[in-house]
Amino acid sequence: MTTSSIQPLPATFAVGSMTKPGGIDIVQVPTPKPGYGEALVRIEATAICTWEQRSYSGAQENKFPFVGGHESAGIVVALGPDYRGPLKEGDRVAVGGASCGACHWCLTNQDRVCTRHYSGSVSYDCGWGPGGFAEYKIHPSDGLAFVGDIAADVASLTEPLSCAVHAARLADVKVSSDVVVIGAGTMGLMNVLALKQRGARVIVSEVDAGRLAMAKLMGADICIDASAVDPVEAVKELTEGRGADTVVTAIGHKVANDQGLAMLAQRGTLVLFASAHPETPIEISPNKWHNNEKKILGVLSSEKEDFYIAARLIRYGLVDVSPLIQGRYPLEKLSAALDQSITPGCYRIIVQP
């Protein structure tokens, strides 16, 4: 592995600021120096996530101006004073969550709940946010994962893969267990990759033929065309009438949640992976869930363990996330990148400063 050469730092750098739904400005901000526990990263690639998509389309409320981009990879160009970790200037890294290492949550191996988890967020005159739509950003050094020589656009998908690794770990998915993923968008397919790493038999339920084909390409064992058959009955038939041990709803929608509830086996776990906009409450029978010992599990983001695992999976070629990259745009064309990202059926669009 070779490190990248470090170029002299500019006095200012470009930032893509979302001023309102559908509105983007490219502005210059002063280049900062990293403090204790921080690193300055030259961003090479940032994938557009559903948070940015919904903010841009107006489907989700946000506080504007907003500097999006939390699925990022880049080069460490400076490390803060007294840094003693393994990273070096010139290393390519993926950007993830941070932690304090000393609070209750960190000391009980639950660092996603640490108040410093999102401490990599930026605050400029032109907006706040995770800050990946920019040429540079300051980030906690403990929230960076070395990715070696893997291409930056591929490495930027470490963070979303880590969320799926997190979900599979919290759901305690067993080898050979039957797991259904409802929805074969980008995050549904990230779940397919993570679940296959745990040895599950993965069944994908989706209404779109193109996405079903992609699910098969990404490793799904069985694909159900939910536009042609009843997915609940199909899952029951595939599992000798038991239902699925785990169901991951990768779509934030009432239909997906209702189907997930109905196809779940006794002692099964329903994983609410996607947020819902608009939000519809889930209706359950407490006695049925009590008698059948079923569980509902919400998952959000990931922890350091998951992020490290995701970085290793990508770095060593144990998974291939590259089919999920559908387009690449320079930062100055951020508006066009976001426009494509919100088209139906789109996978990940990469912004390359």
What structural class should be given to the helix and strand makeup?
alpha/beta
User: Could you describe the largest sheet, including whether it forms a barrel?
Assistant: 7 strands, mixed
CATH superfamily of the largest domain: Medium-chain alcohol dehydrogenases, catalytic domain
Radius of gyration: 20 Å
Q: List unreliable stretches of 5+ residues.
A: none
Query: Per CATH, which architecture of the largest domain?
Result: Alpha-Beta Complex
Please indicate the percent range of residues in DSSP E strands (runs of 2 or more).
25-35%
Distance between the termini: 23 Å
- From N to C, what is the helix and strand string? EEEHEEHEEEEHHEHEHEHEHEHEHEHE
Q: Using the coordinates above, name the CATH class of the largest domain.
A: Alpha Beta
Description:
The protein is of the alpha/beta class and 353 residues long. It has two domains: 12-161 and 302-352, Medium-chain alcohol dehydrogenases, catalytic domain (Quinone Oxidoreductase, Chain A, domain 1), CATH 3.90.180; 172-298, NAD(P)-binding Rossmann-like Domain (Rossmann fold, 3-Layer(aba) Sandwich). 27% of the residues lie in helices and 28% in strands. The chain contains eleven helices and 17 strands. It has helices at 50-57, 104-107, 152-155, 158-170, 186-197, 209-217, 231-238, 254-262, 286-292, 304-315, 334-341; strands at residues 12-20, 23-30, 38-47, 71-79, 92-95, 122-124, 127-129, 136-140, 144-146, 178-182, 201-206, 222-225, 244-249, 264-272, 295-298, 325-330, 348-352. Helix 4 packs across helix 5. The model has no long low-confidence stretch (mean pLDDT 96).
